[in-house]
Amino acid sequence: MKVVLLCGGRGVRYSSEIPKSMAMIGDKPIIQHIMEIYSIQGFNDFILCLGWKQEEIVNYFESKKSELDYNITYVDTGQETHTGKRLKLI
Asked: What is the DSSP track for the chain?
């Protein structure tokens, strides 16, 4: 089963130059913590709905590819796309 993670929004309430999903908690971004929780439950196939600053997310996971046992599909769902439309696009 695939897990869809919405990580493409601009995050207007989160004032930073990085995507919300890349906010660090300890030594890892929050999105990696979320993926680890799913992985513990046996879900390792992820679809990341990307938008704003998507290259930061892609670059991070591509650099960790050898360390993480995840199948990640990156989908550019647009920078200004709302949640429902992101889901429809995938």
From this structure: -EEEEE-----TTS-SSS-GGG-EETTEEHHHHHHHHHHHTT--EEEEEE-TTHHHHHHHHHHTTTT---EEEEEE--SS--HHHHHHH-
